[in-house]
Design brief:
The chain has 270 residues and is of the alpha+beta class. Helix content is 24%, strand content 30%. A hairpin with a 6-residue loop joins strand 12 (154-159) and strand 13 (166-170).
C-alpha cells in the first residue's frame, strides 16, 4: 500500500526524468529580442525517446520553452550555428587528454508566454535570463499555444510545420465571418476551401439545428466542386446558362437576389 508521500515522490521522479529528456540546453546570450541557446552535447541527435514514443528533437522552426520562474517563455528557433574548434590537449593528473570543443547554438525569437493560469498569450512580457533552461515543447503545450477553439464544435485540417501536431479550428469563429484564401496559381486555394467545408459538414452534418437552419450557396465558376463526392454528397448542383433558358434556376426569390449587398457582390464578380 502506497502512502501519499510515496506517490508524491514517484510523480516528482517522473517529472524530473521527463524534464531531463526534454531539456535541450540553456540560455547563453541575449541580443535585443534574440535569444541564443547553447545546446547540450547529448542533445544533438535527430530524435528522442519519451515514455516509449519518438519525439522530434529541436530544429529550425521548432517551438522552444524557456522556464523563468513561474513563466514559460515560448519561442521559435530561427537558425542554428555549429562551431567546430580544433581539438586541444588539457593536462590532468600529469596526463594530457583531448578535449572536444564543438558546440551547437540555436537562435530563437520569442512569440509569447504561458502564465501561471496555464493560458498562452502572444507577445513579449519578459526576456529570459542567462542560464535559464530550455526545453522541447510537449504535444499538450503545442495544443495550448494553438488553442483557437472555445467550447463547441471544431474542425481539423491543419498541422504545425515541424512537429506535425493537429491544430483545431473553431466552427463558430471561422464560418460566421468573412474568409479570404490567398495564394499563387496551383498553391491549393480550391483544395483548402473544399477541405474546410468538407470538414464542416462531416463535423456538423448530424446536428439537427445545423441541418435545419444553415444553407450554403457556392458559386463555382470553374466547375471544381461539381463532382458528387466533393465537399459533401448531400448537395444539389445547378448548371446555369446565360445563352438561353435551358439551364437550371437558382432557388431564390427576386428580393433575396437583388438585395443591395448581395447584388453588389455579384456584379463585381469577373
Amino acid at each position: 500500500m502506497t502512502t501519499p508521500y510515496v506517490e508524491t515522490v514517484v510523480e516528482l521522479t517522473k517529472t524530473l526524468v521527463k524534464d531531463s529528456i526534454l531539456r535541450i540546453g540553456e540560455v547563453s546570450e541575449i541580443r535585443g529580442r534574440k535569444v541564443f541557446i547553447r545546446v547540450d552535447k547529448d542533445k544533438n541527435s535527430s530524435d528522442l525517446l519519451l515514455d516509449g514514443e519518438i519525439v522530434k528533437n529541436v530544429s529550425v522552426g521548432s517551438y522552444i520553452e524557456i522556464r523563468k520562474g513561474f513563466l514559460a517563455l515560448i519561442g521559435k528557433a530561427d537558425g542554428e550555428e555549429l562551431t567546430e574548434d580544433t581539438l586541444f590537449l588539457r593536462k590532468e593528473n600529469n596526463e594530457y587528454q583531448q578535449v572536444d570543443r564543438n558546440r551547437r547554438f540555436l537562435t530563437m525569437s520569442l512569440v509569447g508566454y504561458i502564465g501561471i493560469d496555464g493560458r498562452f498569450r502572444g507577445g513579449i512580457k519578459e526576456l529570459p535570463l542567462i542560464g535559464n533552461e530550455a526545453f522541447i515543447l510537449t504535444e499538450a503545450k503545442i495544443h495550448r499555444i494553438h488553442n483557437l477553439t472555445s467550447k463547441g464544435d471544431h474542425i481539423n485540417i491543419a498541422k504545425t510545420d515541424v512537429e506535425e501536431v493537429d491544430v483545431d479550428l473553431p466552427v463558430d469563429g471561422l464560418f460566421n465571418s468573412h474568409i479570404a484564401v490567398f495564394g499563387n496559381t496551383g498553391s491549393g486555394k480550391s483544395n483548402t476551401v473544399a477541405a474546410l467545408y468538407q470538414a464542416l459538414f462531416e463535423t456538423c452534418g448530424e446536428n439537427e439545428g445545423f441541418v435545419n437552419n444553415c444553407q450554403f450557396l457556392v458559386f463555382d465558376f470553374n466547375g471544381e466542386y461539381t463532382k458528387p463526392e466533393c465537399i459533401t454528397t448531400n448537395k444539389r448542383t445547378y448548371s446555369l446558362r446565360t445563352l438561353d433558358d435551358a439551364g437550371d434556376k437558382l432557388p431564390t426569390t427576386f428580393d433575396e437576389l437583388f438585395d443591395v449587398e448581395t447584388f453588389s457582390v455579384l456584379v463585381e464578380a469577373t
